[in-house]
Prior knowledge:
Layout: E1 4-7, H1 11-23, E2 27-33, H2 40-44, E3 47-52, H3 63-73, E4 77-79, H4 89-97, E5 101-102, H5 107-114, H6 116-125, H7 141-151, E6 155-159, E7 168-171, H8 174-192, E8 197-201, E9 207-215, E10 221-233, E11 236-242, H9 249-265, E12 270-278, E13 284-290, H10 297-304, H11 308-316, H12 323-326, E14 333-340, E15 342-343, E16 349-350, E17 353-354, E18 357-359, E19 366-370, E20 377-378, E21 385-393, H13 396-409, E22 411-413, H14 419-426, H15 429-432, H16 440-447
Parallel strand pairs: 1-2, 1-4, 2-3, 4-5
Antiparallel strand pairs: 6-7, 6-8, 9-10, 9-12, 10-11, 11-14, 12-13, 14-21, 15-16, 17-20, 18-22, 19-21
Helix pairs in contact: 4-5, 7-8, 13-14
Amino acid sequence: MFQKILVANRGEIALRVIRACKELGIQTVAVYSEADIDSMHVQLADEAICIGKGASGESYLKIDRIISAAEIANVDAIHPGYGFLSESPKFAKICDSCKIKFIGPSAETIRLMGDKNQARATATKCGVPVTPGSAGIVENEQDGLRVAREIGYPVMIKATAGGGGRGMRPALNEASLKSSFHAAKLEAEKCFGSGDVYIEKLIENPHHIEFQLVADSHGNTIHLGERDCSLQRRNQKIIEETPSPMVTPKMRDRMGKASVKLAQSIGYENCGTIEYLVDDNENYYFMEMNTRIQVEHPITEEVYGCDLIKEQIRIASGERLSDHVRNSSPRHHSIECRINAEDPYNNFCPSPGHITLFYAPGGKGVRVDTHVYSGYEVPPHYDSMIAKLIVTGATRDSAIARMTRALNEFLIEGIKTTIPFQDSILKNSEFKSGRYHIGWVEQFLALHPSAGS
Length: 453
């Protein structure tokens, strides 16, 4: 087992990793920007090293500074969390060359599955269904028009690199394809350093379903069920739940086996997620693989009774999958709300600033993962998520009731948050019946403009 781990991240995920390390008896090193000097992960780590100014490009994305901090602190391993450098093959390769264990898959695996075009090809080779689309990268507008005519509108233009909804544009006809094609390439170049895009058929009103995978270096690969991440606004997830209200046991078995087969075909190691689009006829299509821990991993932990961060660390140290993880079975229902520092009544405008009061809900089945506290200053430089509220109940109905109660207990003053918007969704009859899809939130906002504009 490792003696000391550097956490190359910030916020709640950095705190989450530090807590897991403490329970495993591992020393921790936090890196932080000047804007995060008062953050909880800095206070709770055994050591802390400043790596730059507030902007992530001057701190959390600076590979040389993170490696320098790791060498100064003499760590055995680096946990990248999610976002930032967690899916950077360059970072993973440099860690390896410096004899520092990267807690995640190999650089080659990250590179292979991080390129969405290659990932689609790999899925196809394994017999996993993919949406109809271009055979490879679409170089120019004319090629894009040709592909769209062949597969039929509507289509989606997607960057081959990155994620989080960046570099993605729908096109409903030739006119919108021309503008969307260039917009997607421009955004992809700006966000990921590569303007390469491909085109695939747009599946209308699908569910966004992801399967949690865990694999060790001894040939053991399992899945821990699915999460439904369909409640999104502008491709950013708002509420997630497991199990999905639309996935049947037969579908779960079929999709789970396909996910495991795909992971095994590339020799995948550590935690990862395979994402699918699922239509109303129970057809599923491979979308992408995330080669890291996901923001929404806690709901899987609650339903399967495991600690995925600890499992990541154990696997990276060479251990086999824990017996309780390998033999776990789902129980109960869990829902997560991402609490963002945004104003839902002003087009979700970011709301950084001073938190004058922070009171988290509690009680049976309630978990809050957060790095903020009363008096904390939410910086303007990073993602707006400041907390994750996770509730678990014996049934979906009881989980919804518990989440509604917890949201109404959650007090955050001094800034605006998404809590009232999420509360309005939880009370909606269509959500309660599970009749939602990727486009549902936008439709909800159109019908209930006071809920988010």
